[in-house]
Every structure is written in C-alpha cells, then in structure tokens.
Amino acid sequence: MYIIKTIDCLYKKIQFFKKKGKTLGLVPTMGNLHKGHIELILLAKKHADIVIVSIFINPMQFDNTLDLKNYPQTFLEDYLILKKEKIDILFAPETPEIYPNSINMHTYIEVPKLSKIIEGKSRPGHFTGVTTIIGKLFNLIQPNFAFFGEKDYQQLLIIKTFVKELNYPIKIISMPTIRLKNGLAFSSRNRYLNNLELKKAPFLYKTIKKTINIIIKNNGNKLHETIDFAKQSLIQKGFLVDIFNVYNLKTLNFFSKKNKKNIILASVWLGNTRLIDNEKFILLN
Ligand code: PAF
Fold this sequence. Notes:
The protein has 11 helices and 9 strands. By secondary structure, it is α/β, with parallel strands linked by helices. It has 2 domains: about 170 residues, 3-Layer(aba) Sandwich (Rossmann fold), CATH 3.40.50.620; about 100 residues, Pantoate-beta-alanine ligase, C-terminal domain (Pantoate--beta-alanine Ligase, Chain: A,domain 2). A 6-stranded parallel beta sheet has the order 1-4-3-2-5-6, sandwiched between helices. It has a 3-stranded antiparallel beta sheet with strand order 7-8-9, with helices on one face. Strand 5, helix 8 and strand 6 form a beta-alpha-beta unit. The N and C termini lie far apart (about 50 Å). The model has no long low-confidence stretch (mean pLDDT about 95). The structure holds pantoate.
C-alpha cells in the first residue's frame, strides 16, 4: 500500500497505473473507518484493478467549526484497517495541500436546489463543500469508478447529479447501508454516543421501518398524522428531531400520492450527536 500525502506524488502514481492500462476505483472517506467503509472497499475491489482510498477531513463541508474540531481523527487505526484490506493507494493530504488559499474564496461546485433542501437547509454550505472536494478528488485521481454509501442518500444523489451534469467520465457505484443486528446504521458519528445513547439509537431505524409499514397500510393516506406520530415517538425516547419526512426517491420533492418510489429521510440529535438514516419504499396504487 502506497501512502501518499502530496498531489505531485499522487499524479505520478496515477499516471504509472494508467499507463499500464489499469482501472482505478476511488473510495473517498473522512477516515474513522468502519464496516460500511470496508464493504465499499470490497465492492471497489470487485470493479477496479487499483483501489484508492482517500482520507481527508474536508473543512469546507463543516458548517460548524466545533463539529470539525471534534471530528474523530483515527489515522493509525484507519491505516491498519487499510493495510489489512490490501488497498493499493491511501491518499491522505494535509489541509494546505488541498486548500492552499482561503476556503471562503475557493472556487466551488454547487448543485442548485438539491443542495439547499432538507439536510442542506439545516447545514448551509455542507453539500457545496462535499461536491467541491469530490470534484477535486475526481480531477486529481481521474478514477473510472467511485463508491459511496446510501446512508448519506441526499449526498449520493447530489454527487450523481453533478457528475452527470459536468460530464465526469466516472461511474458512481453505491452500496446499501450497513447495519448492526439491532438496525443501527454504521457511522463515524456513532463513536460520540455514550452507552445509554447507544441503546436508544437503534430506535431511529425501527421508527422509520414502522412508519413505512403504516404508510403502506394506509395507502399513502393520513401521511401527516403518521409522520407526527413517528416524530412524537422519537421525541418521547429522547431524540430531537430535525428532519423526518417522506420524499420522492429521485427528486427529493415532498411526498405525493402519485409517487411510487419514495424514501424516508431522517436527521435527529441524540445528545450532542447528529444521526442520519433513511429507508426506501414502494407504494403500489
Ligand atoms: O461521506 C463522507 O464521508 C464525506 O462527505 C465525503 C464523501 C468523503 C466527502 O468529504
């Protein structure tokens, strides 16, 4: 495994593999690797000859400096995981290598509308930070494939949109959310949860599943009552609910009974930790 910290070295290594006709698969991460990332790496290995994992805690996508400061940094653990998984290149640049000048003055990539609604409304600028860093990584690495988890569903949709609209010749491959047996989605943020919160956290996914069953049973009727009931159950358990609603799977517009393919997107706070989760469902009318 090559550990690369500079853009110069990265270019050289990428050119070396490209000249040999190898296909490249990129798994972009912010480190603090868990089972979800490992599954993405395994998927990348199936598609590409060379697997590159990037670890970069991207300051541009944090709307809150405290959140950025507290984001778990576990480089040694991550390195050992990646070594065990036998990936080819770990690209782990320092911030000035990626943003030599002020981040506020940096050129950005922004998907209109999609990046401003739902999670983007609660975290202004977040998705612009994500699309900008992913665009930069795509330009630096020029992978044939890039891999993302479906837990960050809105992020995935936004990335697919800019890749299509800006004609990046890259295939975006996504993977369903990896969960513990109790339903809790793997996330770097689970690390912040204390024991009591860890016991409560799976209730989020249980509530999403239960809500979907009710919506399907009601054939999409009484949606407001169903969503209110779900939110109240979460509040009673001690969650602070920021987002819990049903959206069109493709457009992320609010639910309409005409939609067949839908998704519940949820963002909640448990103590000081923001958890997000989702589940798709089909409504047959
Ligand atoms: O999902 C993440 O870990 C990050 O948003 C990503 C895609 C690596 C961009 O920094």
